[in-house]
């Protein structure tokens, strides 16, 4: 089975290649290989615990007490974290928390403020 990209317009999986273009038989959309490469380079969407899409610079609130690894400290529920930065990896939020310093959080433990 080939690994052709889905249609960027209707997300159909039944695309085919015609010379240097990809074609969608369902909606008739045509796009080039360069456009397909650009769309695959887009950042993955990072969502909070409630499904809201997070972006760099957002303010989030911690929804669960989080133990700080290597310390006996705990980041309490309701702690606001300002100016987050999204990064790749398991812990996808990079931030600074007052009283704790720089750390990484998982998006599943925060909600957008």
UniProtKB/TrEMBL annotation:
InterPro entries for this protein: YjdM, YjdM_C, YjdM_N
Domain Protein YjdM N-terminal: 4-32
Pfam families, alphabetized: YjdM, Zn_Ribbon_YjdM
Coiled-coil segments on the chain, per record: none
Signal peptide extent: none
Location of the Protein YjdM C-terminal domain: 46-113
Similarity comment: family membership: Belongs to the YjdM family.
NCBIfam families named in the record: phnA
Name of the protein described by the UniProt record: Protein YjdM
Native organism: Siminovitchia acidinfaciens
């Amino acid at each position: 089975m080939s690994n052709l990209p889905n249609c960027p317009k209707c997300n159909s999986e039944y695309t085919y290649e015609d010379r240097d273009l990809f074609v969608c038989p369902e909606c008739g959309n045509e796009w080039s290989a360069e456009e397909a490469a650009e769309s695959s380079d887009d950042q993955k969407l990072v969502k909070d615990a409630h499904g809201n899409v997070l972006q760099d610079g957002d303010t989030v609130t911690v929804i669960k007490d989080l133990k700080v690894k290597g310390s006996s400290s705990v980041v309490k529920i309701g702690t606001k974290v300002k100016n987050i930065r999204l990064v790749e990896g398991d812990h996808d939020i990079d931030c600074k928390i007052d009283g704790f310093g720089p750390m990484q959080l998982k998006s599943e433990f925060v909600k957008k403020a």
